[in-house]
Design brief:
It contains 13 helices and 17 strands. Helix 4 runs parallel beside helix 5 and helix 6 runs parallel beside helix 9. The N and C termini lie close together (about 10 Å). The strands form three sheets. Strands 14-13-12-11-7-10-9-8-17 form a nine-stranded mixed sheet, with helices on one face. It has two domains: about 130 residues, Rossmann fold (3-Layer(aba) Sandwich); about 220 residues, Dihydrodipicolinate Reductase, domain 2. By secondary structure, it is α/β, with parallel strands linked by helices. Bound molecules: nicotinamide-adenine-dinucleotide (NAD).
Length: about 400
Amino acid sequence: MGISLGLVGLGAFGSTFADLFRRHPVVDRVALCDREPQRIRVFADRPDWADKFSPRDAYDSLDAICRADLDALVIITQPWLHAPQCIQAMEAGKHVYSAVPVIMTPDADEILGWCDRLIRTAERTGMSYMLGETTFYRPQTMFCRRKAAEGAFGDFVYAEGEYFHDVDAGGYTLRQVQEHRETGAAGCEWVQRKAAYRRRGVLGGPMHYPTHSTSGPVAIMNAHAVSVTAQGYRNRTGDPFFDDSAFSNETALFRMSNGAVVRICEYRECAGPFHDSETFRIMGTRGAFAENTWRSNGRRGSGVLGPDELQTLTDDAMRDPLPDDVARAWYDPAAGSVAYGGHGGSHAYLVHEFVDAVAAARLPAINAWQAVRYMAMGAVAHQSALRDGETLAVPDWGDGPAQVRRPGP
Ligand SMILES: NC(=O)c1ccc[n+]([C@@H]2O[C@H](COP(=O)([O-])OP(=O)(O)OC[C@H]3O[C@@H](n4cnc5c(N)ncnc54)[C@H](O)[C@@H]3O)[C@@H](O)[C@H]2O)c1
């Protein structure tokens, strides 16, 4: 028997996941939910959706879809809504997938409070939470996780993660994205709420959207941040995009639980070729990875190096395989390959991991305990930057249960 799930939030990003979820062979039934009815119709009116979607499974609110007899909800709403909506879904007995980040508001303390409530809810309800962090399933991250599992890095010494995305770069700019997200019923409500933060003098920063840059080093090293010092760059042009931000760029240096040091950059005002670069570099005593290249010195002990290995890899060589039936269901004959979706082909893996975890009643790879690690790093880095680089402790909620047998579908 397959699973049933509801897609909540069919905007610009959520709509790119809809067909992957519907076509997954283990998904039997898909419900659709958005506060803007025309966004539901885009899929509800399509003949190829009739196999898994019934018109009675169209919902105009999270409250309504939480009452439906579905196994799971996929929440891809605006970023300030995620954590409370995911908690509501888990309280209603649904496993939940959340778009990144865990939550984004201008208030770092509030973000850390939501991290705590998310963990408590996951513990109390036994429902699964998965963060849809695209970097986790980029080919580079999959390759490095395999190398780490083999011990090929040796001891980790250093990593860099970065998300350079200038506010005006690209065809569909961050400025346009923000304008779009602040339309519609949910967007208009946020404009009011946002003004209240500003009146209180609470200003956020790019470290409140940190998961693309923090997740690579954390997931590969299997370590968490212990402390941080950070600095910010303030916009100097009076750009209204940054009215709710203390900084347009933030740079942080973390001490990790394994003794390594990690440098993270979240920049929204930067020129040059890095306009939308989401990447990491990672270095151990025996192996290192950067720019799709693996290098190993073959170290066998003090003063003893083995043959030097230098290997540049393709995306296909770095990816984990998908199960055959899933790859067949997503095969795109025009492209002659699996339709992996965006962000380095990570979308397909995110969908498969969530569906498979719900069906198998297991904890997903990017579970609540992983997710809050990526998020807390950014929130505390921002607090440090506001205090001119004061070194601050980063909270951690542990590894979570080794594996739990949860209520299945
Ligand atoms: N690489 C990545 O991981 C990546 C890339 C892009 C976007 N995102 C994330 O995806 C999320 C969505 O971004 P987007 O650009 O699609 O936004 P969007 O504004 O286009 O879509 C959000 C949708 O959620 C709906 N919604 C809000 N509250 C709702 C509720 N209570 N019930 C039902 N529907 C509700 C809105 O009506 C809207 O249609 C963001 O949080 C963003 O952070 C992640």
